[in-house]
Design goal:
It is a single chain. Helices cover about 45% and strands about 20% of the residues. The protein has about 140 residues and is α+β, with helices and mostly antiparallel strands. It folds into two domains: about 70 residues, no CATH class; about 50 residues, Nucleic acid-binding proteins (OB fold (Dihydrolipoamide Acetyltransferase, E2P), Beta Barrel). Strands 1-2-3-5-4 form a five-stranded mixed β-barrel. Helix 1 runs antiparallel to helix 2 and helix 2 runs antiparallel to helix 3. The termini are far apart.
């Protein structure tokens, strides 16, 4: 097995590991392994390949974190963490006839705490979430 094969395998494993949501750390290491693979393809020695990997990982890990926070900041608050302060959503109806609550661009199953009828287009206050179901007033 050539060195670049090992770097490619390591990169693929790390990129697959990123699917477990490790917060871009495995992604940075996977990309760094691809950079090290490039060094191996250029015929550089093992010491240089490890140095390139370490340097790339050191630059990519904080860089990716910074890019993610800058261009994809989370605006969602967590009701479970007590951060929700009387937020509102809009009742919509699917083609199947089921009702959903549109909240921050996502659709959630919805249930009224008081068994009041759901009115399409109405803005309602969210009491809490029960799993993935929004409970409204």
């Amino acid at each position: 097995m050539l060195a670049w094969h090992a770097w490619l395998i390591a990169a693929l494993l790390l990129l697959l590991l990123e699917l477990l949501s490790l917060g871009f750390f495995a992604l940075a290491l996977g990309l760094a392994a691809l950079v090290a693979m490039s060094a191996a393809l250029l015929g550089l020695g093992a010491t240089v390949q490890w140095f390139v990997f370490a340097l790339a990982a050191g630059l990519l890990a904080p860089g990716l974190k910074w890019l993610f926070r800058r261009y994809a900041p989370s605006r969602r608050t967590s009701f479970l963490a007590g951060e929700g302060q009387r937020q509102e959503g809009e009742i919509t109806q699917l083609e199947t006839g089921e009702y959903r609550l549109r909240f921050e661009g996502d659709l959630f199953m919805v249930r009224s705490a008081s068994n009041a009828p759901l009115i399409v287009g109405a803005r309602v206050k969210i009491c809490r979430f029960d799993g993935i179901t929004a409970i409204i007033d």
